[in-house]
C-alpha cells in the first residue's frame, strides 16, 4: 500500500441560508484515491450487466472515469454520495455505449434487420449529462419519502452537516446517521435495478 | 440455500477478500434464466460494500494517468521490466511462435501508449498482459484521459469494428498479411 487517505466524500461549508453549495476542489475529492478505489468495482458492475463484452467493457470503464476525472478536476460536486454518482454514471455510460453500437448497426443494416432484443435507446444520450443536475437528484430524494428525503436534501443539496440536519429535524445525531445510511442503501438499490 | 445464493455469497467473499472475482464468469456459472437476477445481486453487493483498498499498482497507474502519462508504461518501468522482455513474455503467454514477436511488439507499443482501441482487443490479450505485469486483470489500466482526443493518435486503420483503429504508420510497417496477432489485438470484442 503506497498510502491510504480517507475518502472525503463531501465537506460542505455552506450553512443554512446560503443560496448555493460551493464546488469542491480536486483535493477535497481526493481524486486519485476515488478513481483507484472504484476502478475495479466499476469493472465488476459493467460485467455484471452482461450488456457489453471483451474490450468493450474496458472502453466503457475508460469512458466512465474520463468523465469522473474531468468533472472532479473541473470542480464538480456530485449531489449524491460518490459511489452512487459513479455507479449512476456507469449505468448511463453503458446505455449510451449500447445505444451508439445499436445506432451504428441501424445505420449499416437495412431497416428490419435490427436485433429485436437491443432497441436503440436514444434517451440515453440525454441522460448522460444529468448526474450533477439538482432536479434529477431531487427526484431521487423525493422517492425516498418525507423523512429520508428531507435529510438527504438538507445534507447533499443544502450542504448541512449531519449534526446540523439532526438539530433541524429534531432528532439525535445517531438517528440522523441511521437515516442517512438507510437512504443511501435505498438509492443504491435503485441504481442496481437501473443497471439491469 | 439456492445455487444463486451460493454464487452471490461466493462473489461477496472473493470481492471483500480482494480476490478480484470476475462478474462475467459468475454469470456464466448461473443458468441462463437466473443471470439477470445474479447480475442484480452482484451490483447490490458492490453498492452496499465500501470499495476495497486499491492495489498499490492501481494507485500507481491512476497517479500516472492523472499526470497525463501512459499508465501501462508507468507500471512496466516501476517493475524494472524492459519492453522487449514484456513483448517476449506476452508472445509466449499468448501461445504465439517466435516469428510473431515483431508483430506483437508493434501492437504492444500501441497498447502501452494508449493508442490501441480497447474494444478491438480480445479478452485473451487483457488476461495475458495482466499476467505478464503481475497484476489482476481488473486492476489493469490501459489508457489515460485524453488518449481518445482527436490528434492524440495518428489513426486510422479500420478493421471489423468502426471503433477499431490502429496507428496507420505502425500497422503499415508490419510485414506480411493480417494474421492471428492482428485478430488478437483488433478483432474483438470477446
Could you walk me through the main structural features you see in this protein, from its secondary elements to its overall organization?
The complex is a heterodimer of chains A (196) and B (190). Chain A has helices spanning 26-29, 31-49, 55-73, 82-108, 123-127, 134-143, 146-157, 162-169, 173-194. The longest helix of chain A is centred in the middle third of the chain and has 27 residues, at 82-108. Chain A is built from nine helices and no strands. Chain A is mostly helical and 196 residues long. Helix content of chain A is 64%, strand content 0%. Chain B has 190 residues and is mainly alpha-helical. Chain B folds into two domains: 3-48, no CATH class; 56-186, no CATH class. Helix content of chain B is 53%, strand content 4%. Chain B contains ten helices and two strands. Chain B has a two-stranded antiparallel ribbon with strand order 1-2. In chain B, α1 (3-16) runs parallel beside α3 (35-48). The longest helix of chain B has 14 residues, at 3-16. Classes of the chains: A mainly alpha (196), B mainly alpha (190). The interface between A and B is large, with 46 and 54 residues.
First CA to last CA of chain A: what distance? 34 Å
Q: What is the chain-wise order of helices and strands of chain A?
A: HHHHHHHHH
Name the chain pair with the biggest interface and residue counts per chain. A-B, 46 and 54 residues
**What amount of the residues of chain A lies in strands?**
under 5%
Class from secondary-structure proportions of chain A: mainly alpha
Round the Cα radius of gyration of chain B to an integer and report it. 18 Å
Task: Provide a count of the helices of chain A.
Answer: 9
Number of DSSP E strands of chain B: 2
For the largest beta-sheet of chain A, the strand count, sense and barrel status come to: none
Q: Strand fraction band of chain B? A: under 5%
Shape of chain A: elongated
Taking pLDDT < 50 over at least 5 consecutive residues as the criterion, the unreliable ranges of chain B are 149-166
Amino acid at each position: 500500500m503506497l498510502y491510504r487517505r480517507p475518502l472525503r466524500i463531501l465537506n460542505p461549508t455552506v450553512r443554512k441560508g446560503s443560496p448555493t453549495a460551493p464546488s469542491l476542489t480536486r483535493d477535497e475529492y481526493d481524486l486519485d484515491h476515488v478513481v483507484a478505489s472504484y476502478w475495479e468495482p466499476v469493472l465488476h458492475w459493467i460485467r455484471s450487466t452482461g450488456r457489453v463484452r471483451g474490450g468493450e467493457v474496458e472502453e466503457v470503464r475508460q469512458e466512465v472515469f474520463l468523465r469522473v476525472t474531468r468533472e472532479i478536476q473541473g470542480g464538480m460536486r456530485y449531489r449524491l454520495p460518490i459511489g452512487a454518482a459513479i455507479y449512476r454514471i456507469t449505468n448511463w455510460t453503458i446505455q449510451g455505449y449500447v445505444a451508439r453500437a445499436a445506432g451504428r448497426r441501424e445505420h449499416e443494416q437495412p431497416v428490419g434487420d435490427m436485433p429485436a432484443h437491443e432497441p436503440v435507446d436514444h434517451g440515453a444520450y440525454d441522460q448522460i449529462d444529468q448526474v450533477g443536475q439538482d432536479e434529477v437528484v431531487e427526484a431521487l430524494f423525493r422517492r425516498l419519502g418525507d423523512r429520508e428525503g428531507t435529510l438527504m436534501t438538507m445534507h447533499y443539496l443544502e450542504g448541512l452537516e449531519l449534526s446540523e440536519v439532526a438539530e433541524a429535524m429534531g432528532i439525535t445525531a445517531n438517528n440522523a446517521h441511521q437515516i442517512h445510511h438507510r437512504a443511501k442503501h435505498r438509492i443504491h438499490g435503485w441504481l442496481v435495478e437501473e443497471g439491469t | 440455500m439456492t445455487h444463486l445464493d451460493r454464487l452471490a455469497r461466493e462473489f461477496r467473499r472473493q470481492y471483500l477478500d480482494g480476490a478480484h472475482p470476475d462478474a462475467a464468469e459468475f454469470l456464466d456459472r448461473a443458468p441462463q434464466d437466473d443471470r439477470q437476477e445474479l447480475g442484480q445481486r452482484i451490483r447490490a453487493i458492490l453498492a452496499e460494500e465500501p470499495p476495497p483498498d486499491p492495489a498499490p499498482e492501481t494507485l500507481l497507474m491512476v497517479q500516472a494517468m492523472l499526470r497525463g502519462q501512459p499508465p501501462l508504461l508507468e507500471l512496466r518501468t516501476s517493475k524494472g521490466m524492459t519492453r522487449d522482455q514484456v513483448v517476449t513474455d506476452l508472445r509466449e503467454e499468448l501461445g504465439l511462435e517466435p516469428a510473431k514477436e515483431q508483430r506483437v511488439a508493434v501492437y504492444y507499443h500501441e497498447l502501452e501508449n494508449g493508442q490501441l482501441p480497447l474494444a478491438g482487443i480480445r479478452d485473451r490479450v487483457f488476461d495475458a498482459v495482466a499476467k505478464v505485469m503481475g497484476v489482476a486483470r481488473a486492476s489493469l489500466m490501459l489508457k489515460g484521459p485524453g488518449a481518445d482526443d482527436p490528434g492524440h493518435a495518428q489513426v486510422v486503420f479500420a478493421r471489423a469494428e468502426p471503433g477499431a483503429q490502429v496507428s496507420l504508420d505502425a500497422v503499415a510497417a508490419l510485414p506480411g498479411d493480417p494474421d492471428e496477432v492482428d485478430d488478437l489485438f483488433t478483432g474483438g470484442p470477446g
